[in-house]
Structure formats: structure tokens, C-alpha cells
Amino acid sequence: MKKLFLVLVFQFTFTFCYSQHLYPEKYNSCSLTTFCLDCGETKAEPPVSFVNELINNFDKKSLTKISGTIEVQILIDEDGKPCLLSSANQSNISSKKIRLQKAVNVTSNWQPAISKNKKISSSVSLVFVFENTSLSVKRRQFDTANQSNFKSAGTPDIKGTDKSRLSKSWTVFTQENSELPWDMTRAIANDLDNNIWIGTDNGIVKINDGKWIHFNSKNTTISAKPYNKDQTQSVREMEIDKNNNKWFVIGWDVYKYDNANWVKYDSLNSPINWARKIIVDNSNNIWFTSWDGVAKFDGKNWSVINKENSNLPTDKTLGVYADKQNRVWIGTFEGNVIIQEGKTMLLNEKNSPLSKAFISKVHEDSKGNLWFYLYKDKSDAAGIYVLDAQGKWTRIVHSNSKMFSENAVNDFYLDEESGLLWITLNGVGVLDYDLNSKKWEIYTNENSNVPSIHCNRITKDKDGAIWIATFAGVIKLNK
Question: Could you tell me which SUPFAM superfamilies the record lists for this protein (predicted)?
């Protein structure tokens, strides 16, 4: 495997001292109970041989098959001894199978963090990226000096449309010019009463007729961040069901708000274990993807679709969708399946794009066409496809053939009223595609007032305005 050590550009804000696990997979072999997060005037630094040692310590067979990322939190004590505290595995191989804990713990000592000329214990967060039999290791940087806010603008990977040719503009809402509690936003939705809901990395906002209403760990049952009790856990996903209930993935758990009461669903009262996406189907069933298969809630009862009971290729699920014909489409990191009349079928027909990339999102339009975003890192098969009622596939193409293979789609929204397909492209910004003229426009933070290259969920209000959550505030299309 190739070896590369990189510094991750994202910065995160935290309070200084704590002793908590950051990620859902927890390891209890570390003896220290008090440490600080990537602290010290001099940060803890790994040995030069760190990546080589990891490769030598990982399970060799798993290394030939693994793809995806594993984020780890490593405790570095005063002597520089590393010890794995927690991890978030988003790869196709389990942490146990690749021997993650052992691989980290037996590596050579680090240079420990130093504060006021004294060696101190600290935790460091790294991202292991496995791709095409190569490994790169990136470091998350934490800004402990700035506690007021966090935003990330970034530099676009793809050049945007010439500024003079852009046909649209945006209103930007930030902590500075509005009541947005945090600029880092990931989720946004429009409810049945035309209220806009925004999920940030520090609380939720409801915009009702221009009034901003706040929900956080101080006025709801939502948990505070373990390392800062004054901040609310990050909202990573949001959906509105057909009864106008609000569903959120916050931290590693799911919350439901029925406009009066909050209910938390976790591994104690549901099969949910680190939910990723929320999907509401036509029958108002709520679906959740996770690394433990797909969970479904019908309002009273929970059920699970997984490798054991439905022959999924793997329990690491990426996308799910139940269409109007009651077919359930599931994307995993090892292939796609469809469940119809209780039968699970692997979608491996070689002429179908579903055999080449993984279902991340599906949308059914008013004509019954199914719109798919298929994900596969660094693969030309990744992109947006349309399956019509006759079974014919059409691909949404751009003149840059690498557009969707080099940069993943975070979300797409089909606005049938205006004939526009809106796309948020990771590392770029916002794209709109006119389905009639076949014209593309790319909005980045270099050619427009879109504030960040990290744009996420998209919604549309009943006045026709498009809203998008970004890592540097929320944007609203000017009509």
C-alpha cells in the first residue's frame, strides 16, 4: 500500500479539558481518565514510521479489500504511548476484522503534547482513508482558542461558471447577520406549515414568518456535547414526516419532535445504532440507514433489514428508498438490492448502472421516474441517473466527465415546477441543471456569494425559494 501522511484542513472548536469518547465504537483499554483534546503549545506528533507501522499491523487480507474511511481518536499519554479510545468506521471492513485497536496500540511512541514546558496527555483525531489499495492518514485540527463559532469556506476543486453568466443570486444567513446559532450547518427542511428548519452543529432553528425559534440542549432533551456542556450535539440529518413530525439524527442518536414533545431513539429503545440517513416513504414509514442494516419505524413497531434476514451484501447501508410500487431499494457498500414482495434480489445486471455504483439517494418524480444518485469513490460510474417506467436508463451528464467521480454529491433536489435539478457537490458548491436547455451553472465561493464549498441538504419552501445548508451559513435563492 502507498503511504502518505496529510494534515486535514477542517478545524473544530472544543473546550480545553475533558475525558470523553468522540466516536461510537469505544475501547476501554486506556488507563488514563483525564486528558485534553489536541491541546498544548506543542501538539502531540506521530513517529515518522507511523503509517508504515499501521500497514504492517493491519490484517493483511483485509487490506486488499478495504475501502472507505475510519476516523479514530487516539490517546497520547505523557510518555507518548498511543492508545485507541474510539472510532467511527465508514469502511466496508469491520474494525475488529482489520485489527484496528491492535494496529494503533502497538505503534511506536509519539512525541507527547507540551503545555507550559510540561508533557501532558492529549487525544488526537485522525482519519484513515483506504482507497485503491492505498492508505492516507489525515489529522483533524481543533481550534481550542475560538469558542464562538465555526465555519469552513475552502477552495473549490472545480472552477465555477463565469460570474457574468450566472443567472441567480443568493441571500446568506450567518451568525453575524441573523439569529443562526452556528454557521456550520448540515441539515435543512421545510415543514407542512411552510416553516424552515435548520440543523446546525450547535442547535436547531425554526423560521416561522421571519421569527427564529431556537431548540438546543438547554430547552429540550437533546444532549449537550460531551466535551462542552454549553453546546448542543451536531444535527447531521433531518426529515419531516406526513404528520408534520420532525425527525433528526443528532450526534449518534435519533430524535423525534411532534411539535410539543421530544422523544429520543437509541440502542436502548430501538434497533438504531449510529443512524446516517432518514427517509420518509409514501405510507409514512420512517427508514434509517446505518452500519447495522436498515431500520424501519411504522409509528408503532420497529423492524430491521440486514444481511442475516434479507441477504444484504453487507450491513453497511448507504441509501434506502420505498417507491410507489412498494419496492424497497437499498444501497450498500458492496452492492445494491431490491426487495419486492418479500424477495431480495441483487441488482447485478451488467448493463445497469446499479451493478457499478452504490445507491445513495433515490427520488420518484410525478411521472413515476426514479432519480438515483449512485456513489462510488473515484469511479466513472458515479453520478445521477434516471430510470423511467419502461426500464430505460438515462444519465445526467456534464462536459467535465470527472465531475461526479472526483467529487461526491451531498444532495440533489428535483424542482419539477421550474424544470431545474439542484445538486450540492462536495468540495465545489451548488450546481443547477436546466432540464430543458441542458445548461449547467456552478456556484462556488469564488464566483458567487455561496459562502462555502461544503454545501449539504437542499429544500424548497412553498414560495418557491431554494434553501441550502452549508458549512459557512445557510443560503436562500433570490427569486
Answer: Calcium-dependent phosphotriesterase
